[in-house]
Write a structure and sequence with these properties.
It contains seven helices and ten strands. The chain is of the alpha+beta class. The chain has two domains: 92 residues, Orthogonal Bundle (Arc Repressor Mutant, subunit A); 140 residues, no CATH class. It is globular, with a radius of gyration of 21 Å.
């Protein structure tokens, strides 16, 4: 059994074994797949990029990491990390203007095309999502922000959750005039997510310069215009995949057992 490594050692091991620079989500996926860490928290990808970015910012030239493109990193000396006899010359670092646009100041998290049937609907439903498979599920019931309802792939309604949280607003749409018209939903949240999976407080102010790219990113991600060649800037860094409410599976198993008993 492989002993669990610290985040830094796990990152170094993955980058050291790779022949090419890796995006931080690829680094995270490799750490999980290789079992280098079992304690992942709720935001493993965010933890990985924070570990690397903090080192670059704090340690400067002495940092072992180099950013070669948006969200993509390599080790400064691959021969030391990977045991290679020759040193790999990484791509020069990108200019400051090309640095990763931090969306955490506006959009902290989002989910795309989540299934209505994967939620046990109630006044306070569990809206469970994971940043990566194996990560701690986060309940976004109390998230605030913007949401979209879909009938198939068509957007039929756009709403906001401000005075009432996301879970409550979606629950209301299972009872109102839209109740029979939607089967999926997407959402974009403003409350930050901690590594333990707790939602934080809504910021009192937002930096004006970051509002425009955040709005652009939300529109591109939600509407998927055919002529846009990129997804919303770095929203992929905080995307959460839906995790079905365990209560639904319990009911499914119970129904199957009851059906089997009736046939006896």
């Amino acid at each position: 059994m492989i002993k669990e490594l610290t985040w830094r050692k796990a990152i170094d091991k993955v980058l050291g074994a790779s022949t090419t620079p890796l995006h931080y989500k690829e680094i995270t996926d490799k750490i999980i797949a290789d079992g280098l860490r079992t304690s992942l928290g709720a935001t493993p990808a965010a933890t990985v990029v924070a570990q690397i970015s903090t080192s670059i910012k704090r340690d400067g030239a002495s940092s072992p990491y180099i950013r070669v493109a948006k969200g993509t990193f390599t080790l400064k000396n691959k021969s030391a990390a990977a045991g290679s006899p020759s040193e790999v010359k990484p791509t020069p670092t990108v200019e400051d203007s090309e640095e990763i646009e931090e969306q955490y100041d506006i959009v902290s998290s989002f989910g795309m095309f989540w299934r209505r049937e994967a939620v046990q609907w109630a006044a306070t439903p569990k809206l469970l999502g994971m940043q990566q498979l194996g990560a701690t599920p986060v309940d976004f019931n109390k998230q605030l922000g913007i949401y979209l309802l879909y009938d198939g792939r068509e957007v039929i309604y756009i709403g906001r959750s401000t005075d009432r949280p996301l879970g409550r607003r979606l629950y209301e749409h299972t009872l109102d005039r839209l109740a029979a018209r939607w089967d999926r939903f997407s959402w974009f949240g403003l409350l930050p997510v901690s590594d333990s999976g707790q939602l934080g407080e809504l910021p009192t102010t937002f930096e004006a310069a970051k509002i425009i790219p955040a709005l652009e990113a939300i529109l591109i991600e939600a509407l998927e215009p055919r002529q846009n060649r990129k997804r919303g800037d770095d929203l992929s860094a905080v995307e959460f995949i839906q995790h079905e409410d365990p209560e639904i599976n319990k009911k499914r198993v119970k129904a199957s057992l009851e059906a089997a008993m009736e046939k006896l």
